[in-house]
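@channel sequence for tomorrow's demo:
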Amino acid sequence: MRTRASLKIASVIQPGRRWDSRAKLTSPVFLYTFFLKIMGYSRWKVVAAVVFALVCSLSPVDADEHDHTYTDKEEVVLWMNTVGPYHNRQETYKYFSLPFCAGSQKTISHYHETLGEALQGVELEFSGLQIKFKEEVMQSTYCEIELDKAKRDAFVYAIKNHYWYQMYIDDLPIWGIVGEADENGEEHYLWTYKKLEIGFNGNRIVDVNLTSEGKVRLVPNTRIPMSYSVKWKKSDVKFEDRFDKYLDPSFFQHRIHWFSIFNSFMMVIFLVGLVSMILMRTLRKDYARYSKEEEMDDMDRDLGDEYGWKQVHGDVFRPSSHPLIFSSLIGSGCQIFSVSLIVIIVAMVEDLYTERGSMLSTAIFVYAATSPVNGYFGGSLYAKQGGNKIVSVCRVLPSDLFIYFLA
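structure tokens (generated this afternoon):
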């Protein structure tokens, strides 16, 4: 379980805030202690370092989206994530890259971002909408868009490319469409009314639904009011099961190209059969010669010339011309295989999909923890080939990839 400190960038200590009593000695603290011990630090220095780590992990937290519990009329944050074309999920932009307007509330008391979110490009922006736990909001205008020609062209481009946006409430994702065009594609309309329906079970949010209404035609030099409403309802869904609906195959309507899959499958079978036939015809004569050699005595076998596949058997264990790079690739491959296997097992045991970026954060931590695998397999292979720069084996590939990432 991740500590509260890893879930926040900043938190403001205010009266009435409670200390998290569930903080405990987690695995990072144990690893930190073990590292200090093997580095030769004294016992008192180790104790002081552990106390400091525990104090840092104890952060004052409200009952909010960090622990997914709320009190009545407590602030519920609506985060705006990204917007992009529906048919290209990899093309995403900031929500406010389109000329949307935000609500009147400009600041909030907390913000969080994990390492996995940062690497995945998740850039949450505050919507400015005032939402409080179990407090319904009737339809009200929160801002107005002054639609000039440039803003209209931006919205028209987004509607033509079927742009949709993603939002989050208590880590639950919500999707909405920007607008739609008429049957002829001449007039374009913007959805201006966000109708939120939030389900709660006790003091936890278990379901969020968005209905887009208020279709308004895009006309230059006009003012378009943006409105929202919030309705709360009791739900029997347990908090542990609130992500089950996102796992339903019918929730996301993916278009599966069955013909392309069948075509690729048949192509693979054809190529495998073709390569097998070529190898069998090539090796048939070699197999016949090898069977005749079994009938020869040792003298004739030693005087005979090597032919066929036996001509390359001496190159199998020949030292490579670049042992450092070769050993580094072998060690990194073993490490990546270990990371993939461990992450798959952890994903089967833990519900990593319930937290944004948790899968990537887990992979990074496991990659750092499995570095001895890289050192063992890569270093041992490098030592067998007579190398004397064993430490360089573990850092050749990561250093090159890091430089490539920065470039």
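heads up for whoever presents: The longest strand covers residues 188-201.
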